[in-house]
Amino acid sequence: MSSVKMEVDGYLSRIGFAGPSGAPILELLRSVHTCHLLSVPFEDLTVHSGGQVKLDLPVLYDKIVNQRRGGFCFENNSLFYWLLTQLGFQVSVLSGQVKNSITGRYGPPFDHLILMVDLEGKRWLCDVGFGVPGFSVPLSLETCGPQEQGHRVYRFRRKAETHFLEWQKEENRGEDGDWKEIYKFTLEPRRLEDFTEMCQYHQSSPSSIFFCKSLCTVLKQGGRVTYIGRRLITTTFPSEATGGVVETTTRELEDEEIPAVLAENFGIVLPSPLVPKDDTITPPPVVY
Predict the structure, then answer these.
(1) Which of 51, 131, 173, 255 is deepest in the core (most CB within 10 A)?
(2) Of the listed 127, 163, 199, 212, which one is catalytic?
(3) How far apart are CA 274 and CA 50, in angstroms?
């Protein structure tokens, strides 16, 4: 796989970015971040179709760009790290720990790979490797105040050296709203290879959503489409047409329907048969 030719233009074409990619400025950072989310699914289908996720950059480029697949955080954010550095951005890799919405527990250290960009003296959090709660454009690490993105709002809360990313789910009730933790992290720089062990964990642990559930989700203009187990969930964000509320529809799937659903909604054609899975997640034995 070392013979894979990694080209910035190929990546930009894959994510549908058609603007100038000259100087590393905030407008470019925001644009490629959103383009990636609108084009590259967050998915773990390799785990459920007889494959093994590997974090070598040429392998990730071939999978995401050439094969037009997606990946989970280690894959999407590792390759996005490569793109940003190639575009001239100053990027640090950070370790996050996700608060599981089902078990209520945080994952182990190196549970989540995220990126921080230093740009003109200001720091921005980037994450193109998360699911439904993910933010669409980089968030400023220079403030703990609310940061609105469409109908959603996010903020950072600090406790000593730990930063907590929070949101109000699909609502925005202002600063006094009901804030929920998404994940926590520190600003200590890491290396991509530091996440190898946790990449294996997420492919084999009953405490990992990626081992327990076959899933694929992608952001759309005005909403999101999510496949999980034997369900297809379509979410439409608030608009005049929805009466200002989030609309969600769920379609139950037969096993034989799933390949066509993946191809039609996510552009994904798997090289091996998928084994749909939607098992209960076991809470981790250690409280982090």
Answers:
(1) 131
(2) 127
(3) 8
Cα–Cα distance measured from residue 72 to residue 112, given in angstroms and rounded to the nearest whole number: 9
Convert the pLDDT of each residue in 82-134 to its tens digit: 999 999 999 999 999 999 887 888 999 999 999 999 999 999 999 999 999 99
Which one is catalytic: 33, 35, 48, 73?
A: 73
Q: Which of 156, 124, 127 is nearest to 140 (CA)?
A: 124
As a whole number, the mean pLDDT across the chain is 96
- Catalytic residue list contains 127: yes
C-beta separation of 233 from 247 below 8 A: no
Which distant-in-sequence residues (6+ apart) come within 8 Å of 113 by Cβ?
Answer: 73, 74, 77, 78, 93, 94, 95, 96, 129, 190, 192, 195
How far, rounded to the nearest angstrom, does the alpha carbon of residue 21 sit from its chain's CA centroid?
23
Q: What is the three-class DSSP state of 23?
A: coil
Position of tokens 């996010």? 154
Q: Is 73 a catalytic residue?
A: yes
Buried b (16+ CB within 10 A) or exposed e, 79-116: bbbbbbeebebebebbbbbbbbeeeebbbbbbbbbbbb
Tell me the mean pLDDT in the region 27-31: 98
Residue 112 bears catalytic tag: yes
Which pLDDT belongs to residue 2?
A: 58
